[in-house]
Design brief:
Blueprint (H helix, E strand, L loop, with lengths): L1 H9 L3 E3 H11 L4 H4 L12 H15 L3 E3 L4 E4 L1 H4 L6 H17 L11 H16 L2 H14 L2 E6 L10 E7 L3 E10 L4 E2 L1 H11 L5 E6 L2 E2 L1 H7 L7 E4 L1 H11 L17 H6 L1
Helix pairs in contact: 1-2, 9-10
């Protein structure tokens, strides 16, 4: 919890989840090996560190230290700006006591974005993506790019093509355009730096940008390699970002408002007849 608070203070009081996670792991001196440990290798691409940091943010929000917007930006509250350090046990006890009080009062708790309900649909979507045929996943990527503003998107998927699965053109404001080639990796593991280098070798001289999409995640070295000085930049989309984008574009994901009917027994009325 404290590295999260310190990270937000260093970021100026607010930051995205990615910014907070990167700064907090730096503060906590988390090793590269620890950063790559998956929370549940059978279910998703979220690492153990990301999982714990998500719960740290959730507890700090309930404790009044943090707040977050619907756009994924987290910030320190006035109380948080005046707090440099918390006792983790005290925070957990406070949140747990609030939950107990709410249950006694029969108050339905609003589930946070990063708790079980959120995780359930994300796990289901990722499991479905992993079951897709490789060619179907490539077609999904093609549709995703088209919905995101790309034109002339083609799936090539030719063997011996350096891992290139397709190409397209990104138009910006109707004025600028960039030729992009992309590669899809539909698996649960981590994409390594060597795989990023191999993909870059395939794109040199053929496109302005490279796009590497995976249902898994990227090692820290892979992220560094993708943005290495002096080399063509490669944009990375991991499983979490892919899932967010599919939801945003409504591709295979529907969001519905569900009204819940609550029945309340008026014992006093019945017993007074």
């Amino acid at each position: 919890m404290n590295p999260v608070i310190q990270a937000l203070k260093m970021l100026g009081g607010s930051g995205t989840i990615e910014e907070i996670n990167n700064k907090a792991t730096e503060i906590a001196k988390v090793s590269d090996d620890q950063l790559e440990v998956l929370h549940d290798s059978e279910k998703g691409s979220q690492t153990e560190i990301e999982y714990r940091l998500a719960w740290a943010r959730t507890y700090l929000k309930k404790y009044g230290i943090l707040e977050n917007s619907g756009r994924g930006v987290w910030a320190l509250t006035p109380k948080g700006r005046q707090t440099d350090k918390v006792n983790g046990k005290t925070v957990r006890r406070y949140v747990q006591d609030k939950h107990k009080q709410a249950r006694k009062a029969k108050i339905s708790q609003v589930v946070d974005d990063e708790t079980d309900i959120e995780a359930t649909w994300r796990d289901e979507l990722l499991a479905t993506l992993l079951k897709m045929h490789p060619s179907a996943f490539e077609r999904l990527t093609q549709r995703l790019l088209r919905e995101s503003g790309f034109i002339q998107v083609e799936v090539t998927g030719q063997s011996g093509d350096g891992g290139v699965d397709g190409k397209g053109i990104m138009r910006l404001g109707g004025l600028l355009s960039f030729h992009v080639i992309f590669q899809c990796k539909r698996y649960q593991g981590s994409v390594s730096a060597s795989q990023v280098r191999d993909f870059r070798g395939a794109m040199v001289g053929r496109a302005d940008k490279g796009l590497l999409i995976t249902t898994g995640n990227f090692t820290k070295d892979a992220v560094r390699e993708a943005t290495r000085d002096g080399a063509p930049a490669i944009d990375l989309i991991d499983g979490d970002l892919l899932i967010d984008k599919l939801k945003e574009l409504g591709l295979g994901v529907k969001t519905e408002i569900v009204q819940v009917e609550q029945t309340i027994i008026d014992s006093d009325w019945l017993l007074s007849i």
